[in-house]
Structure formats: C-alpha cells, structure tokens
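To the team - pyridoxal-5'-phosphate complex, inputs and output below.
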Amino acid sequence: MEKLAINGGYPVRSGKIYYGRQWIDESDIYEVTTVLQSDYITCGPKVDEMERNLENYTGAKYAVAVSNGTAGLHCACIAAGIGVGDEVITTPLTFAASANCALYCGARPVFADVNPETYNIDPESIRVHITEKTKAVIAVDFTGQAVQHREIRDICDKHNLIFIEDAAHAIATKYNGEQIGSLADMTCFSFHPVKTITGGEGGAVTTNSKELYKKLILAHNHGITHDEAMMEGAPHEGSWCYEEISLGYNYRITDFQAALIVSQMKKLDKFVSRRKEIVKQYNEAFSEIQEIIVQKEILESDTCRHLYIIRLNLDRLNCTRREFFDAMSAENVQCQIHYIPVYWFPYYQRLGYRKGLCPNAEEIYKGIMSIPLYPRMTEQDVRDVIHAVKKVVENYRK
Ligand SMILES: *Cc1c(COP(=O)(O)O)cnc(C)c1O
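Output:
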C-alpha cells in the first residue's frame, strides 16, 4: 500500500489541483479589450448580443443579463411578486443565495428535503411544505443535474406557484431533450469563475413570459422605464423623459463582462464535452469502489456536470470525512464541500431555523466531497485525482 502524504509519504502530484477553475484564452482577452477601447463599457451592444445568444442557446423567448447570479435570483423573486408574509420553497443543499433571495423580499424560505440518491429537491417534500402562504418554488439543478421538471411543474400548476429554477450549475444541461432555461417560469444562471462559463461576475434570467420579462427588466434597472407606453405621468414632456414605476436595483452587467460571456459561449460545446468525458472516467473509476457512493441521475437529465461529488460510505472507512478531506489535500488534490445545509448557518439559526429540518440533506452533507472537475484538466490531472481517491480509500478501508 502507498503511504499517504499526510503520514509522510509522497503526494500523488507535486502541484495543487483545485476543484474548479475558469478557462480564459487569448480570444476572450481580445474580446474584452476590444470593448474596453470602445465607446460603450456598460449597457452596450455586447449586453444585447449576450442576451440574444442566451435566448438562442436555451430556447427561451427572453433573456435579461444581470450583474451576477444572486442578482438574477433577486430579480426573479421581485418579478414573481414575492413579498412580506410569503413563503418560498427551496432546497438546503445549495449555495446560500438560493434562499437569501426570498429573504431580500421579506419572504420566508421553507426548506424541502432532497432525494437521497440524486441530491436534488424532492417533489414530494415540496408538496408537504405547501401552505396558503407559498408563492414560489426555487428548485436548484444541484451539480448540474436537472430537477424533476414534470413533477415540479405539476405541483406549481396545481397550487398556482411560480417555478423559479436556480440553474447556476446547469447552463448546458437538458431535460427530456429540452435545454435548461426554457422550462421553468424563470431560470437563473451564474457566470462566476467556478461555473461552466464565466464573465468574472455575471448572471442572467430567462423566461418565456413577456409579463415576467418586463418586470425583470425593471427590477435590474432601478425600476426605470424609457418606454412611453409604460409611463404613468402625462403629458410626456420630451425625449429625455423616463419614469421610475417600481422599486428596482442596479443589477446591470458591464459590456466587457458581457463580451467575455459571449466569447465563452462560443466554447461552451467544447467545455461541455470535456466535462462529460471527465465525468465518464470518474464514474467508471468510482462505481467499482464500495467505499464511494456515486450520485444517481434521473433518466430525463442529460447533465453537464458543474461539480463531481463523491460521497463517502463512512461505515466502510476507518476515517472521518474531515480526515479523508485532509488526506486528499496532502496528496495535493484540493477538494471542497458543496454544501453546508443553508439553514445551519448562524444567520438562519437566528431566524429560528433548527438543525434536523431536512434529514436526507443533513445525512448527505456528512459524507460528500467535490473533487476537481473543469474542462482544462489534462488526462494526467484526471488520473491523479482518481489515483488520490483510490490511495486514500485503500489506506482507510476497514
Ligand atoms: C454560484 C451560485 C449562485 C450565485 O451566483 P453568483 O453569480 O455567485 O451570485 C446561486 N446559486 C447557486 C446554486 C450557485 O452555485
């Protein structure tokens, strides 16, 4: 057996590898610097191009570019009319923003539990948590796998709820052959550097509803309109006129970030196929290891994975998750944990949430670890990660 680096052995590789990383090339740099030398560095033609490209790619009728994924979620909640006294059902196994956006609007996030095998929000648990106050469901395509659209759509239609999809992980995923972005009432994307494509920061919301689109436009631009037909004041005094007709925010994206996203979108197919190749190699390597549980997928999801999670079967290992994580780190494979259940955070505890709310999510959290997955990984990188996982498992096998 190879001696673990954490016990004084040689690490599987000399340089650290991280769980995610952007891929910026010369063409991206060229596109960004071109915008920086132009007349428009914000709200220019690249923002329009980004929105039209997202509409084409997702098949949604409308796309609104925003400054980041969190801003997109906030705008979606505003457009959904979520306010004080409302409840919004979401998952605890997500980044805090998926629930925070409800709090921004004065609403209360309600946490539904996840499916123990797919880790995505369980439609049955959504159903159980519906009250007269429920206004929307924010379902997260966790790790990139599509949520159960058919079931969630049925629930939302039956109870008159708005279906918001947090697709920060899932820009390139399809559900039943249809691209994510065209299915929920509103779909929110993030272009943070760890996500599938990046703008440094950046986000977007897509929808097929003209009404929601108009509200999204207002929400991300101070609630201000230049459209005479939408203005309330009369008479119209001149071409300089604009009106604030609702409370909005400045959640606009810059033109140079949009240029980066447009440029990255050109490489999306390449990124997706590389991610899929790596996932295939990981699945093959880990499905044979009894100590590792691989995330299950629903048949309907053609997934572009953003994260690859291994779940430790701790009953079969002589170590804690923390010891496993530290051992991987010493092998120079830096993992991450996605995610600590949102309601465990002190802020949520102060709002009255208690541990134990979602037993499946809490049980999953205990054993999960995200290993490196990004398109720029070389074959050697992939082999190193697999090697490190196997080495650590062997050392801690019961
Ligand atoms: C990254 C992420 C967000 C927030 O996106 P930002 O662009 O960082 O604001 C929201 N939800 C999930 C699930 C995410 O992973």
